[in-house]
Amino acid sequence: MANWIPLWLHRLSSPPTFYRFAGTLQPWAMTLALLLGAIALYGGLVLAPADYQQGDAYRIIFIHVPSAWMSMFIYAVMGVASFIALVWRIKLAEVVAMESAPIGAAFTFITLVTGSLWGKPMWGTWWTWDARLTSELVLLFLFLGVIGLYRAFEDRRQGARAAAFLAIIGIINVPIVHFSVNWWNTLHQGSTVNVFGQSKMSWDMLWPLLTMTLATKFYYAASLFRRARTDLLALEGGKDWVRQIAQDEDAR
Amino acid sequence: MNPTRKRRLTIVVLVAVAAAVAAGLGVYALQNNMNYLLTPSQVQSGQAASYTTFRLGGMVKAGSIQRSSDSLKVTFTVVDAGGAMPVEYTGILPDLFRDNQSVIATGHMSNARFIATEVLAKHDETYMPKELKDAMAKAHAEKPGIEKAGNRE
Fold first, then answer.
1. How far apart are CA A60 and CA A39, in angstroms?
2. Are A99 and A92 in contact (CB under 8 A)?
3. Contacts of B35 in chain A (CB under 8 A)
4. Would you place residue B151 in the very low, low, confident or very high pLDDT band (cuts 50, 70, 90)?
5. Is A139 on the interface with B (CB under 8 A)?
6. % of chain B surpassing 90 pLDDT
7. Hey, is the C-beta of A123 within 8 angstroms of any chain B C-beta?
8. Is A28 within the bounds of a domain?
9. What homologous superfamily does CATH list for B40-122?
10. Which residues lie on this side of the membrane: Cytoplasmic (chain B) (predicted)?
11. What is the pLDDT at residue B138?
């Protein structure tokens, strides 16, 4: 078995290496996010045709659905990082988990707000307690709970470990959000885009949606890199590599 | 893997599994009470008897919508595969409300009629341009055999 992958990961998990690595990639990720986001918005709001049933109102899907996917994706990343943080006590995993939470909470909030704005004209209501909407709201509370628990401890690493437990327990909600529309009768419609099998959307509407999905992924990477870098500097404040960076900044 | 990590791994996995089992049992227990809506045939078989208000879900029967000329009162029939239910509603309906649209109405039964206090329109997960939909409808109309075969599935 090739063992350069674990070796590379092990080296990457060292704070100074990750600090440099993230610093190099961050501007690229941000550029790609903005570029793809602009293309997707133009494709979705200008090029894509109106829907046969919902007219132009469906166009909020280009924000709503990528945000919803990100809310679950970021929770999954946070859960995996929390698991690694708890078992192996890797500092970088704690940082990734805790710095993902505010980004995930933001995407969940956007999902709920855009969904509400979409629901009023189409369904006839801002909010209803069906399984999909309720479980997505629970996801927002889980993100906020993780942030709150993390900040409640004076010692940040202790806080991170407590919050990591909450993150792992809450991960059970992610499949519930995803499958809620299949398991229960809901007002919310089923999945449009299927990884396995036919998607129920014509291609000239689907490509802007998928492009926006990519854009949000890059935005998450860029945002996480920036937050993690700041966090690492604060956590490793007394270490030589941070002092070196401070001196270099001073000399400039 | 050293013993400390093994111990931590066991604890974390146990906590995660316990949480998953608890959530699974909770959802399973709630399954019967988590009906967001009842269909007309469920109502007619007496399943709504224990509710004072509930949600009724189904399709608006084509041609059944009747609007009052001097008020916002609307009557229509909601149908599903095995039943039909007359519905009465006073108020503003969502844009998507029309013949053959899935709707969810909240309200109560009165003299074998459903008196709705809120009517929501449900839309499906299909998105396509109007031209494509029209072309498909035309193709279906020209070859009725296709539609019949599709309905049998």
1. 15
2. no
3. 184-185
4. very low
5. no
6. 19
7. yes
8. no
9. Nucleic acid-binding proteins (2.40.50.140)
10. 1-8
11. 81
Q: Do B125 and A200 touch (CB under 8 A)?
A: yes
Q: Is residue A129 part of a domain?
A: yes
Contact A189 B124 (CB under 8 A): yes
- Closest residue on chain B to A56 (Cα): B129
A29 domain residue, yes or no: no
- From the list A122, A172, A185, the residue facing B36 with the nearest CB is A185
Contact B122 A53 (CB under 8 A): no
Other Cβ atoms within 10 Å of A137 Cβ, number: 16
Q: Where are the alpha helices (DSSP H) in chain A?
A: 4-12, 15-42, 61-88, 91-122, 131-152, 156-170, 173-183, 203-235, 240-251
Which of B35, B119, B121 shows the shortest C-beta gap to A122?
A: B121
Domain membership of residue A174 (yes or no) is yes
Give the total number of structural domains in chain A: 1
| Per-residue pLDDT tens digits for A166-223 | 999 999 999 999 988 888 778 888 888 887 777 888 888 999 999 999 999 999 999 9
Q: Do A50 and B129 touch (CB under 8 A)?
A: yes
**Residue B122: DSSP 8-state:** E
Token digits for A247?
């001196």
Q: What is the pLDDT of residues A142-158, one digit of tens each?
A: 999 999 999 999 999 99
**Min Cα–Cα distance to chain B from A118, Å:** 12
pLDDT at A1 over 60: no
